[in-house]
Write a structure and sequence with these properties.
heterodimer, A: mainly alpha, three-stranded mixed beta sheet, 12 helices, B: mainly alpha, Arc Repressor Mutant, subunit A, two-stranded antiparallel ribbon, 2 strands, elongated, disordered N terminus, transmembrane (chain A), metal ion binding (chain A)
């Protein structure tokens, strides 16, 4: 397997161009699906390879419970720099497992608590909470999920903008955006090089809901002003950014996109454009990841099979 | 703090119900009868508080849920407010809630506010045309 076992760890870098270009050039629906698929494949492959390296690493540990054959020279020779790589792989894989477990646990805890908080109320799809803090969330779960919005946020919106807000949150629920979001979060935990994809997907999922909402209420401007007003009224917590690098944040970009023309529904970009090349590059990277990790897993299986009498 | 009656005196049924209900409304969530009794300043017997709460329950003014061996009581009219307070607690406890719940809007960066006002101002003038 040689150097192939390391490739899936760094191949996520091939997805960086598309993570940057997708939001400008692809329909948000296509962008969300493509980036999530790439992130999931790459994260799985990277974790498999980390696992293979860990096997080599644990075989070197004195007193390990593995069969003696596992620490044979043939096994160790299968991985370049086996001593260093194996030793690093053990804590790395442990960190990945812990981080993913923690993410899932926090996710389900918040989810459970939020549902419990609404438990006393009638089972309506939209829940209006009397609160002076302006916020709105889509809460998935149950038969169709619920939309919760506070009176403070509703009071600053015109009727058309309220419809836009509800349409946006309903789109999140109907399109099951929470699944994309949790998938890319776990992927980013599995391999830090996938973090730009997580950032990109959390933006494109919002854009997807914005576009759905614009179609549902029949006015791109109503959605744009709803987002703008909601952001201005809830601006209590500014995002910490370096002042010199302050590129426009996600909210102004969403508003600007809605004030522009609707994105075309074309699903895959033409090859000889920057975004086409970036998309194909990421797809090739994901395929290479899959092949490298499959190659490594199969070779490791045969080496271990030959080395151990099992 | 509300004024607590210092010594017991005779009160009408309606007044007692109002007192108990207002005490319940001051609670940060469901409260037990013992809590209500303490809150009212000891002027009422525990059984009296229970009697009044049960009467309020019959009227639909409060609801109760089992909490261990006793009941936790909530003013019925305040279910939405209670849910809002609970939800705030959930959201405040979650340091990066964006990671869990997709918010309608995220926070604004330093230049975003100006940018956003420009964009919205532009819309408004277009809308006026």
């Amino acid at each position: 397997m040689g150097v192939f076992v390391f490739l899936p760890l760094v191949l996520p870098l091939t997805a960086w161009p598309i993570a940057r270009l997708a939001e400008l050039h692809l329909h948000p629906r296509t962008a969300t699906r493509l980036l999530t698929a790439v992130a999931v494949v790459m994260a799985l492959c990277s974790t498999v390879c980390l696992g293979l390296l860990m096997v080599v690493g644990t075989a070197q540990l004195p007193g390990n419970p593995l069969p003696d054959g596992w620490s044979d020279p043939e096994v160790r020779e299968a991985v370049p720099y086996d001593e260093v790589a194996g030793k690093i792989a053990i804590p790395a894989l442990l960190a990945v497992v812990l981080a993913c477990g923690r993410t899932l646990w926090r996710h389900s805890r918040t989810h459970r608590r939020a549902h419990r908080a609404l438990a006393g109320l009638p089972r309506t799809e939209v829940v209006v909470l009397p609160d002076e803090a302006p916020y709105a969330y889509a809460l998935p779960g149950g038969r169709r999920g619920r939309v919760m919005v506070t009176t403070a946020l509703l009071s600053c919106l015109e009727p058309a903008e309220r419809r836009a807000l509800f349409a946006h949150e309903r789109a999140h629920l109907a399109r099951r955006h929470h699944r994309f979001l949790i998938a890319v979060q776990l992927a980013a935990r599995a391999n830090p090089f996938l973090r730009p994809l997580r950032t990109a997907v959390s933006y494109t999922a919002e854009r997807w809901a914005d576009e759905d909402a614009a179609q549902a209420v029949g006015s791109r401007r109503a959605v744009a002003t709803a987002i703008g007003k909601a952001a201005l009224v809830s601006r209590g917590t500014p995002v910490p950014t370096l002042a010199g690098l302050a590129a426009p944040g996600p909210v102004p970009r969403r508003v600007a996109a809605l004030l522009g023309p609707a994105p075309t529904g074309r699903s895959w970009p033409p090859v000889f454009t920057s975004v086409g090349l970036a998309a194909w590059g990421a797809a090739a990277g994901a395929a290479a990841s899959a092949m490298s990790s499959a190659n490594s897993a199969v070779s490791m299986f045969f080496i271990l099979h030959a080395a151990t009498p099992l | 703090m509300t004024d607590h009656p210092q010594r017991p005196r005779r009160r009408g049924q309606g007044e007692l119900e109002a007192l108990v209900l207002s005490a319940l409304r001051e609670a940060e969530g469901p409260a037990t009868a013992g809590w209500v009794q303490e809150r009212l300043g000891g002027g009422l017997a525990y059984t009296t508080v229970i009697t009044i709460l049960t009467r309020l329950l019959d009227k639909g003014a409060v609801s109760r849920e089992r909490a261990g061996r006793s009941f936790a009581w909530t003013p019925a009219a305040d279910q939405a407010g209670l849910a809002a307070r609970k939800m705030r607690k959930v959201l405040d406890g979650e340091s990066d809630r964006e990671a869990v719940l997709a918010s309608f809007v995220t926070g604004l960066g330093p230049d975003d506010e100006r940018l956003l006002r420009d964009l919205l101002g532009q819309t408004r003038s277009e809308g006026d045309d």
